[in-house]
Structures are given as C-alpha cells and as structure tokens.
C-alpha cells in the first residue's frame, strides 16, 4: 500500500506542529472502522482522521466531514469517556513502522490527571485502533476486537495486555551500514527483482519508493539481483544514503501522482520522479494523503453503488426473461384454439355417423383445401355431441388465454425494455449523483425499498450533459430516465429537435434551435451523441430517429423515460468518443 513508514513519518512531523497541546473537543465514528477527532488549539481547529479499514487504513488531517450514525458505536463512546477534553502531549512513531501513538493527557472520574495512549496500527487488513492505559499496559478497548482464534500473536480485548504488532526484522535506513545492506541484499535469490528486495529488507519502504530509489540511482526499475555488479551496489547505496539523510533531517518532499485523467494514482513522502511523464502535485503530506483517499473512497463508493444497482436490475431482467419464456410457451399451446374449434365442428357435422364409446374417429377435414383426413380423440364416456361441446369449451378457453397471454407478453416485453434502458444508464453513469437518481427511480417503480434517509435532501434539478455543436447549437443529453423526462417534458420547446436511437434503449437528445434551421452538421453530431449514449455505443451504423419536440408525447401512466413520437426521420450514424470530447461544453 502507498501509506508506508516514510509517509507515516512525514505525517507525524506535520501533526506535531499542528496538534501538540491541542484539546480534543469532540470524537465521532462515522463508519465502523473510522474515527474523527476534532482538535482545538488557539486560533485553529483541525479534524484528525484515523482509519483501520483493510484497504484504506491511514492517519492524517482531513477537511472532509462525514455523516455520523444516529447513535454512536460503543468504541466511540469509550473514546469520548477517556479522551474528550484531553490534550495531546505526544505523537510517537516506533522506528519507521506504520504505528503511530497519540499520548493524551485527560482526567479520570475523580478529576485526577490520567494519561492514555491511542495506538494507530496501519497494516492493511491487520490495521487497528487501540486505546491503551500506558501505566498498566492494558487495553481499554479497540475498534477491532479479536482472540487467539484469529491471531496467534496476541489477543485484542478489553483488559488484556497490549502487545505491539510482531517485529518485521527489517533494516532501519537511518542506522544502516553499507556492509549490512550488501549482505542483506545478496542473500536473496539471484532472479529476484531488486525493487522487491529493497521493500522486503528496508523498514518503511513501499514498492513505489523502492522503484524510486532505483530510478534515482540511475538503474532500471525491473533490474534483477543477478544483473547487479559493484557499480549497481555502489549507486544503490548512495541513493539510499541520500534518502536516509533527508529522513533524519525531516526534509520530506510529499508528492501526489495524477494519471492522464487527473485522478490520484500514487503518493509518497518524497518526490516520485520516476513518474516524470505524469503530473506530480506537491503539498503537505496530510493534504496529499487526504486528496488521494478522498478520491479513492469516492471511486469505491461509486463502484459499490453501481454494482448494487446492476445486481438488482439484472436480477429483475433474469426473472422477466424466465417469465417471458413461460408466457410464450403458454401462448404456443393456446395457438391450438382454432384446431379445437375445427374438431368440434367436424364432430357436429358427422353426428349421424358417431356413437358413444368411441375413443377416436377419423374424419374428412373439409376446412383443409387438400381434403386431408384428421384423427380426433374422443372421450368414450361422452356422447358425440358432448365431445363436440368439450372441444368448443377448449376453443373458448384457449382463445381467451391467447388474448390474455398476448397482452401479458407485451407488458413483460415493455418492462424488459425499460430495465434494459435502466441497465444502460447505470453502465454509462460516471458520477454518484447520477446513480442516486437511478436508485430513486427504481425505488419509485417498486424495484427497491425506499432507503431510510434520516435527513431528507432537497430534490435537485436533473442536470443533463451539455454539448456545443460545430455550428454553435446547444445539444442536451439525458443520462438516465429522470433526466430524459426532465429534458423532453420540461426543458424542451416545441421547435427544438428531439433525437433517440431507433428501437434501442438510450438517452433523449435535444437540439435547442431557438427557431433557427438546424444545419446537417449539427444534426449528424447530435445523432452521433444519441448513438454514443445508448446501448449501441460499441456498434456501427446505428439508426437514430429525429423529429420536432412537439411531435413527442408521453402516454398517461407510462414508465419514466418512455415516450411515443411521430413525424420522424432516420439517420444512420456511428458513435464517436472523440466527437463527444470535442463537443463538451
């Protein structure tokens, strides 16, 4: 993980200047594995975030305020009891381990001074936040409790002795001797990448920092030990010594690497020069860590919400597909309705030749131009006229079933098409607010139970995407059914041009004309946008209908996003991502 021991050292150095002697005013636990401490010093207030999340564990100052649960969890109440009103007297890091200890001077129930330690262990899935009584070395409580059944090394339970995490037996770069370094390096198998060896033997070094050391030494990042000679060993040692000197002096150079889309990719306590083709952002270590994990958690939240909605929609689509299959099977059986009628009429036409007790009869089918003979099954317990009446009843029932099943099939197909459109909107959604709109729609349509929202947020106006055509016309694109309805039924004017992929789920697209004639270039660009923001994004030669908005109507009681239209013409276009980027307003 990028939050290595060097990052912890840089964070600790900044926290000492920001938090020492600060008073802990409030403590919150917005999620099961995250604690926020509001700390006050004369003229300043800070929010300290402590996380024991298996993927996002870290310690840093944050500007992000999270919503808290209605009632605080037990661990939060314990922290409030022992730490609220206390002052931070020390912040310690053990070597370059990812363990940070906050020493808090507070008061017990008798008003006597009482020192507590809040231990933050940042170690991936083994991360924890533990409140310890330093005098007795006993655990008061922890955000994660577990027994020896989980860890053979120690128990983390109230009343147990606090045992630090097991030693990693790595070399401290600040105390490292050259011979000691060479020996540890050369003990590895010859085919091992040097970056992996550095990470394994040096305390506080992550994989990204190991690659940075190689880069600063002028060596290839994929260098293996077998290709190391005296020159490689010397320049490696010099690069490590330079970094160790900067650590000892507290001269960190926090760096955040952004990818091509401007999203945080890596961070470190030193400038990551080996990412030179990408943008690198400098700042305080706490600020950069906060930016990285805020973006990471937003992406994780987005992916979680997206996958949750896709699961619901695809489950419903699977159910409807099965239902449709059964309905079509039932319709196929009902298609014999005319055959039952013919059997009944043939029996009635031949009553004079039939008698009770027959199990079948072969008669000439005068409805068949070929005058073919047909075998008709009979119930021997019934008279011929009763057998005819039985076939007429089957005919009436089958005819009714055929009509009802046909209507049900049509309804099922419409619902399936609706869900396909919702699925497309989910797949193409790029932000959490878009997913929230889709979730609200699914709640309104009865596919999801309404979420228990403690605070009802004010409904926001949908915000369709805005593009500008090569001819200067504004083109609006709905990203989901709520935006589609808002775009078509609220924003659009009668003279605007409305577009939609033909018989393919997708976005409503609108060209704001202002009464002007729309050039063919703008029409083609809008049609390409409609194809791109549809289920046919990966296809070619996509048919797109266009008509004036005044020709578009929504039937009463129709589902969100469903409209009917007349007077349309059709263009055949290809989706074009480059065009989308070029026309973005």
UniProtKB/TrEMBL annotation:
Superkingdom classification of source: Bacteria
SUPFAM superfamilies xrefs: S13-like H2TH domain
Keyword set includes Hydrolase: no
Record carries keyword Protein biosynthesis: yes
Keywords, ordered alphabetically: Protein biosynthesis, RNA-binding, rRNA-binding, tRNA-binding
Gene Ontology MF term list: ribosomal large subunit binding; rRNA binding; tRNA binding
Single GO biological process annotation from the record: rescue of stalled ribosome
Function according to Swiss-Prot or TrEMBL: Key component of the ribosome quality control system (RQC), a ribosome-associated complex that mediates the extraction of incompletely synthesized nascent chains from stalled ribosomes and their subsequent degradation. RqcH recruits Ala-charged tRNA, and with RqcP directs the elongation of stalled nascent chains on 50S ribosomal subunits, leading to non-templated C-terminal alanine extensions (Ala tail). The Ala tail promotes nascent chain degradation. May add between 1 and at least 8 Ala residues. Binds to stalled 50S ribosomal subunits.
PANTHER family linked: NUCLEAR EXPORT MEDIATOR FACTOR NEMF (PTHR15239), RIBOSOME QUALITY CONTROL COMPLEX SUBUNIT NEMF (PTHR15239:SF6)
Family statement: Belongs to the NEMF family.
Protein name per the record: Rqc2 homolog RqcH
Annotated organism of origin: Desulfofundulus kuznetsovii (strain DSM 6115 / VKM B-1805 / 17) (Desulfotomaculum kuznetsovii)
Gene behind this protein: rqcH
């Amino acid at each position: 993980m990028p939050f290595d021991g060097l990052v912890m050292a840089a964070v600790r150095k900044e926290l000492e200047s920001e938090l020492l002697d600060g008073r802990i005013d409030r403590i919150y636990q917005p999620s099961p594995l995250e604690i926020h401490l509001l700390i006050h010093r004369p003229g300043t207030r800070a929010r300290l975030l402590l996380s024991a999340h298996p993927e996002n564990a870290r310690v840093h100052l944050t500007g992000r305020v999270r919503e808290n649960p209605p009632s605080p969890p037990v661990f939060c109440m314990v922290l409030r009891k022992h730490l609220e009103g206390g002052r931070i007297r020390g912040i310690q890091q053990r070597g370059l381990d990812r363990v940070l200890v906050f020493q808090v001077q507070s008061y017990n129930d008798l008003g006597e001074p009482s020192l507590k330690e809040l231990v933050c262990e940042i170690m991936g899935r083994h991360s924890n936040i533990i409140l310890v009584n330093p005098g007795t070395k006993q655990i008061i409580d922890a955000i994660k409790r577990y027994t020896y059944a989980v860890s053979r090394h120690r128990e983390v339970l109230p009343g147990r002795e606090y045992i630090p995490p097991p030693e990693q037996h790595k070399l401290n770069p600040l105390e490292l001797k050259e011979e000691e370094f060479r020996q540890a390096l050369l003990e590895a198998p010859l085919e091992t990448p040097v970056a992996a060896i550095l990470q394994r033997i040096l305390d506080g070094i992550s994989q990204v920092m190991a690659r940075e050391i190689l880069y600063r030494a002028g060596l290839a990042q994929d260098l293996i030990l077998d290709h190391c000679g005296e020159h490689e060993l010397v320049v490696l040692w010099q690069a490590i010594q330079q970094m160790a000197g900067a650590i000892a002096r507290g001269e960190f150079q926090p760096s955040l690497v952004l990818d091509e889309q401007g999203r945080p990719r890596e961070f470190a306590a030193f400038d990551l020069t080996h990412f030179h083709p990408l943008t690198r952002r400098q700042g305080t270590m706490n600020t950069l860590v906060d930016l990285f994990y805020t973006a990471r958690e937003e992406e994780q939240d987005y992916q979680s919400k997206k996958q949750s909605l896709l699961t619901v929609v695809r489950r419903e689509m699977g159910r409807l597909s099965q239902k449709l299959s059964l309905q079509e099977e039932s319709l196929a059986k009902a298609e014999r309705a005319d055959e039952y009628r013919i059997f009944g009429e043939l029996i009635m036409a031949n009553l004079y030749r039939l008698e009770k007790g027959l199990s079948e009869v072969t008669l000439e089918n005068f409805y068949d131009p070929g005058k073919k003979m047909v075998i008709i099954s009979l119930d021997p317990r019934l008279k011929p006229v009763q057998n005819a009446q039985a076939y007429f009843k089957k005919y009436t029932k089958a005819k009714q079933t055929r009509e009802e099943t046909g209507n049900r099939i049509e309804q099922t197909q419409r619902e399936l098409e609706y869900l396909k459109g919702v699925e497309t909107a989910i797949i193409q959604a790029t932000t959490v607010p878009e997913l929230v709109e889709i979730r609200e729609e699914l709640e309104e349509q009865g596919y999801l139970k309404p979420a228990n929202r403690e605070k009802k947020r004010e409904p926001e106006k949908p915000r369709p995407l805005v593009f500008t055509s090569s001819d200067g016309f504004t083109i609006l694109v709905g990203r989901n059914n709520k935006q589609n309805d808002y775009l078509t039924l609220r924003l659009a004017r009668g003279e605007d041009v409305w577009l939609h992929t033909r018989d393919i789920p997708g976005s409503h697209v609108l060209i704001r004309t202002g009464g002007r004639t729309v050039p063919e270039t703008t029409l083609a660009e809008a049609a390409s946008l409609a194809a791109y923001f549809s289920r046919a994004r990966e296809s070619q030669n996509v048919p797109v209908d266009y008509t004036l908005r005044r020709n578009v109507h929504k039937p009463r009681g129709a589902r969100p996003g469903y409209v009917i239209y007349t007077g349309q013409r059709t263009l055949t276009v290809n989706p074009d991502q480059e065009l989308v980027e070029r026309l973005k307003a």
